[in-house]
Design brief:
Elements (H helix, E strand, L loop, with lengths): L11 E3 L2 E2 L13 H7 L9 E2 L5 H12 L3 E5 L11 H13 L3 E7 L20 E6 L7 H7 L5 E6 L17 E4 L14 H14 L3 E3 L15 E2 L2 E2 L9
Parallel strand pairs: 1-4, 4-5, 5-6, 6-7, 7-8, 8-9
Antiparallel strand pairs: 2-3, 10-11
The structure holds iron/sulfur cluster (SF4).
Length: about 240
Amino acid sequence: MAENSKIGWTDHTHNFWWGCHKVSEECKFCYISGIMKRGGYTPFAGPMRTKNWDKPRRWNRKAEQDGTRLRIFTCSMSDFFHEGADLWRGDAWKVIKECSQLDWLILTKRPERVLAHLPQDWSDGYPNVWLGVTAGCADSFSRLDVLKSIPARIKFLSAEPLLEPLDLSPYLPSLDWVITGCERAKKGQRRLMELDWVRDIDDQCRRAKVPHFFKQYYKNDSGIPCEDGYLDDLVRQSWPMAAA
Ligand code: SF4
């Protein structure tokens, strides 16, 4: 995996395991498929443990030396709470806790598995873990209900791929951050996103005083992205208050 991610809201990605199974509409054109096939793997056959677990320790040491913090998107090529990784997750939690200079952004589509798979000393959440769920369509809102019941220092929603207009008003009071973005699948497979849907979510977030991070937008199916984060000539890329 690349050390420095192209994802605007993270500094690095780290995969304790990779490989997955599709669980909902947002997964339809999941980007791991092409990457895994090119590496000679079967993409949706479940997770395999990776061998690069020392990398976060190196980032952590560097962040300590520099007196900074780094955001790590955790399991970008899988789901941290996938049932196929239950045997390895305990070791992953140890690395996450040890690397306290890193902020681990764990985004899941399986929040119903979270409570039973938190470390024993989780309490009201590790200070360096941001916990999020994906909901790009209203059919996935039940994930936000589950997230409400889980203790975490920072809770977020990723509405990417954004597949339809969303009324987030019942959920915004329990969220610290909202991400939006269009589908990043290859040309011909992208479900196009309307900018008005993003404008509406931006307005909802502003009214609820929840930071909104608009990640990217394809104007059409040409494969040419607009400048990331611009909405009506203004960058809409805000961060959770605790992380500002
Ligand atoms: S949960 Fe994430 S990694 Fe897994 S299939 Fe769905 S989009 Fe892909």
